[in-house]
């Protein structure tokens, strides 16, 4: 760009002035070209405030608490959890309006129902007997003894 600016007429007097300006320009360009090779003034340097970190801080494996929480409504777990993880208390906010009965673990709306090995025919027979006559055999008792094996009014 400077060459185009300095390009003028082809007279001899202009060429001497052009050569002088070219020398000044080339001197300025050479000083700018080698400016990055000169040392930085220590007052302006930030090298003292920077530190080389050859190895970052490492946290030991046992120092980190990586306990996993299991949702109590999950029926299947894809890994083998520890006892503390499996039976840990449920995390999160607790509803203050729930009664003690509502806070109890349950698998139905009315409570906790366990599976029982009862024949379907006998179950239906005792259910109909209870609704018709008001009593039925107690399924938790194996043998009828002293009238204690019934549920309801005889």
From TrEMBL:
Gene expressing this chain: PRP17
Q: Which domain of life is it from?
A: Eukaryota
In the record, what terms sit under GO molecular function? Answer: mRNA binding
Which residues lie within the region annotated Disordered? 1-22
The record lists the lineage as: Eukaryota, Metazoa, Ecdysozoa, Arthropoda, Hexapoda
Kindly state one GO CC term assigned in the UniProt record.
catalytic step 2 spliceosome
**The protein, known as:** Pre-mRNA-processing factor 17
Which InterPro entries does the UniProt record give? PRPF17 (IPR032847)
First and last residue of the signal peptide: none
Any Gene Ontology biological process: mRNA splicing, via spliceosome
């Amino acid at each position: 760009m400077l060459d185009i600016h300095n390009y003028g007429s082809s007279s001899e007097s202009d060429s001497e002035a052009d050569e002088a300006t070219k020398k000044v320009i080339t001197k300025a360009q050479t000083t700018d070209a080698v400016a990055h090779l000169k040392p930085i003034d220590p007052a302006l340097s930030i090298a003292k405030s920077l530190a080389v970190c050859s190895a970052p801080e490492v946290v030991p494996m046992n120092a980190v608490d990586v306990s996993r929480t299991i949702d109590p409504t999950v029926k299947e777990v894809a890994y083998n959890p520890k006892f503390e993880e499996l039976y840990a208390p449920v995390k999160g906010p607790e509803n203050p309006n729930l009664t003690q009965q509502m806070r109890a673990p349950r698998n139905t709306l009315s409570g906790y129902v366990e599976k029982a090995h009862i024949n379907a025919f006998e179950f239906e027979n005792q259910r109909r007997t209870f609704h018709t006559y008001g009593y039925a055999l107690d399924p938790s008792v194996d043998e009828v003894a002293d009238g204690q094996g019934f549920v309801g009014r005889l």
